[in-house]
């Protein structure tokens, strides 16, 4: 007997003759598993009933690994999140602790004249003190703009006043009338005196108690000529008035 292995073109072989196997048309057996490999020899084609393809299985395995990696990374990011993050909370705390910007009003040019009635000498006497002056070239930064102003204070009675009293610690009020028509009421205390042979400097520090820029700190600086005071105070007539330069710096606290 002979076994019919498949279709064959041409006349049938004679009985008893050997017919060559057509290995190109038959599925091969997997030598390890004893099953069909699903690939025809000499071709890259598959046919129905294929159960194993190394190339396809490798690509499927790689895609599965990428998918699992994506799941793991997504879960880790979701667990971290941004809510309650210590780093973000620390940055927020730093931002909130930063000091706010301060506004300033600076007037670096000005003069003031202080008057005494009756004039003062080196001997104590009661006198009424008044003053008026000007401020120019004012610059406002982060504050309502002004460019100039006038200063003054109402006449006030000072008892047992001498020329030396001008350099002592004292307090008083000064009103600034700005070029806008608005006013600032300053409460100042003279705290710093810098002596010299030619000029002397006094510094008055306080706050704006009412009006424009209320709540701001204030520093008023006066510089006067020593000779003018000494000569007048030593004369019989005494010191009726003196003029000094003045500057004013206001610092607005939010």
Explain what the structure shows.
- The protein is α+β, with helices and mostly antiparallel strands and 254 residues long.
- The protein has three helices and eight strands; from the N terminus they run H-H-E-E-E-E-E-E-E-H-E.
- An eight-stranded antiparallel barrel has the order 1-2-3-4-5-6-7-8.
- It is rod-shaped.
- The termini are far apart.
- The N terminus is likely disordered.
List its salient traits.
254 residues; alpha+beta; eight-stranded antiparallel barrel; 3 helices; 8 strands; rod-shaped; disordered N terminus
Proportion of beta-strand residues:
35-45%
How are the strands ordered across the major sheet?
1-2-3-4-5-6-7-8
* CA(first)-CA(last) distance: 113 Å
- Main sheet characteristics: 8 strands, antiparallel, barrel
What oligomeric arrangement do these chains adopt? single chain
Average pLDDT reading? 76
- Which structural category do the helix and sheet elements fall into? alpha+beta
Please report the number of helical segments.
3
Identify the overall geometry.
rod-shaped
Number of strands: 8
What secondary-structure arrangement, pairings included, does this model have?
Blueprint: H1 54-80, H2 86-97, E1 103-120, E2 125-141, E3 149-161, E4 170-178, E5 183-194, E6 199-211, E7 217-225, H3 226-234, E8 239-252
